[in-house]
Amino acid sequence: MTPTLVRHHRYADSTATVDAGTRARDWAEIQERMLAPLYEAVFERLEVGAGTRMLSLGCGSGLALLIAASRGAHVTGCDTDRERLALARERFASGAGQEPAGTAPRVRARLVDDVPSAAAPAGEAPYDLLTAFDPIGCAAGDCDGLAPALTSAVPLAARGATVVLTGWGPPERCATAPVLRVAARLAESSRTARSGSGWRPPLRDDLEEVAARAGLKPDGSGRVSCPFGYADLDSAVRGLLSTGLFDAAIRATDRSQAEKEVAEALHPHLRPDGTVWMPNVFRYLVCVT
Questions:
Q1: Which CATH superfamily is domain 4-174+200-229+280-288 in?
Q2: Of 136, 174, 216, 257, which residue is 20 to 30 A from 199 by alpha carbon distance?
Q3: What is the pTM of this model?
Q4: Which residues are in the Methyltransferase domain (predicted)?
């Protein structure tokens, strides 16, 4: 069954084109699974199931869509990262969401080109769940970019629909924070680095501020443990660079320099068996339209 995937801008505008195809594959194969506990916790709290019609902003390579679809939800995903979107299509085309043999197929998804085209066709119910699982709060400008994204998506949802925003937890609860500071230091070390680019510490009210800008009413929140675990140092470096949080640093220096300094910053988290382990906490905010 074909997934519903819609092109949509990422929250922080990035012009970096660093090994786009390889980076997207690293995200899908290494990094995206680190957020699976966040997806699962949200879907469990909201009892996502067969009656759910979900629109996911910044869907990446589609792991959250797959999890929701496995619970019976009708899913739509939006992302302008063409490489990640292509990988999401591959995941669904490989058999995810297929109906059992001998049963009539159910239409759960449509493939459209833009957000207005994602509106539910006549006779179908509008979305009752909007998600923004691309965590905000660590890239300058991502909060500013998410509010307009929500503004364009909310009209496609039913009145009183649920909206879920996600972000990084407090730096003191995220072992990855010191590693991410490398991104800020490298970007600031170059006069060519753009003002406002790169990593910045998450703020306590990032999610609430975005909700207020988008006219949403908070209706609960939670924190989820999302440890970052990697098979080896190389995987850890590739996974972290795939997040996009190091784009400004790579523009300011080069990929080799960024890889070297990230690897050095990861050494305190390197275990005797060669694996890398960093406990982190992520936040989510449940809102209503």
A1: Vaccinia Virus protein VP39 (3.40.50.150)
A2: 216
A3: 0.87
A4: 55-94
Domain segments of the chain as ranges = 4-174+200-229+280-288
Structure token digits, residue 268: 């305190």
Q: Three-state SS string across 184-205, please?
A: HHHHHCCCCCCCCCCECCCCCC
Q: Dump pLDDT digits (tens) for 205-260.
A: 899 999 999 999 999 999 999 999 999 999 999 999 999 899 888 988 989 999 99
- The length of the chain in residues reads 289
Cβ neighbours for 123, distance < 8 A, ≥ 6 positions apart: none
175 DSSP 8-state letter: T
Distances (CA, A) of 121 to 109, 110, 177: 11, 10, 43
- Spatial CA neighbour of 170 closest among 212, 206, 139, 141: 206
CA pseudo-torsion sign 145, 23, 245, 268: positive
